[in-house]
Design brief:
The chain is mainly β. The longest helix is centred in the N-terminal third of the chain and has 16 residues.
C-alpha cells in the first residue's frame, strides 16, 4: 500500500513538471580503500524548472552481490541564487542481495550551500534511513560538511563525513578535497579521507545536459 501511494505521488510530480525545460544530470562515485569503506554509486536525475523528478540511484558497498540499494526520488530546489543553494528530496530505497533481508527505507535528503564570497563557500548534505519494514535499521548519514576555497581553477576543501548505524557508535571520516571542471567532460572531485583503521580515496564525477 505504501509503495502504491509513493508511486502515485511520483506520477503527480512528473505530470506537473512535464512542460518545463529538462536538464539531465549523471553522477558517478567510487571509493577505494580498506575493506568495508568501499562503495560504487550511479545516479541519474532530471530537473524541470525547480522540480527534480525522476531521481534514480544505485549504490553498492564493494561486497559483490551481498548488499545493494536501489532508490527512486523526487524533490525541489527550495532556494537558489548566484552563491546560495538549498535542495530537498525524498527517496524510496529498496535493499537487495542476501545480506539485505528485503529492507525498505524512506530517505529525506537535504543539501545546502552558502557562498561567503565568490571564492569561499560552505556546503553540507544530510540524510537519515527511516525503515519502512521490520528488516530496516535506523541510520544517520552526514554525507559531508565542507569548507571550500577556490585557488585559480581548483576548489580546495576540508570537510567531515559521519555515519551512525542503529545503536552503534558514531563513525567519523574527516577528509581533504580538490574539485575542478574539465571543459566538455564534466566536474571532477577527489577526496583523501581517513576512515577507521585506514585511509580511502573517493572519486566523484558529475555532468549536466540540457
Amino acid at each position: 500500500m505504501r509503495i502504491c501511494l509513493l508511486f502515485l505521488l511520483f506520477l503527480g510530480f512528473s505530470s506537473v513538471a512535464r512542460a518545463q525545460e529538462v536538464q539531465t544530470t549523471l553522477i558517478l562515485r567510487t571509493a577505494i580503500g580498506r575493506a568495508g569503506s568501499r562503495y560504487n554509486l550511479l545516479e541519474v536525475l532530471q530537473t524541470r524548472g525547480k522540480t527534480i523528478f525522476p531521481d534514480i540511484l544505485y549504490i553498492d558497498f564493494g561486497r559483490g552481490n551481498e548488499y545493494r540499494e536501489v532508490g527512486l526520488g523526487f524533490g525541489r530546489i527550495l532556494y537558489s541564487s548566484e552563491r546560495h543553494l538549498l535542495i530537498g528530496e525524498l527517496y524510496f530505497f529498496a535493499a537487495t542481495g542476501p545480506a539485505a533481508n528485503g529492507a525498505l527505507y524512506l530517505q529525506p535528503w537535504v543539501y545546502a550551500k552558502y557562498g561567503f564570497t565568490e571564492k569561499l563557500s560552505l556546503q553540507a548534505s544530510y540524510f537519515p534511513y527511516i525503515p519502512v519494514n521490520s528488516a530496516g535499521t535506523v541510520q544517520h548519514v552526514l554525507e559531508h560538511i565542507k569548507l571550500e576555497r577556490r585557488v585559480k581553477k581548483v576548489w580546495l576543501g576540508v570537510g567531515y563525513e559521519g555515519y551512525k548505524f542503529g545503536e552503534q557508535d558514531w563513525q567519523n571520516f574527516p577528509f581533504g578535497s580538490a574539485a575542478f571542471t574539465v571543459p566538455k567532460f564534466g566536474n571532477m572531485e577527489v577526496w583523501g579521507q581517513h576512515v577507521p583503521g585506514g585511509f580511502r580515496v573517493q572519486l566523484r564525477y558529475d555532468k549536466t545536459w540540457k
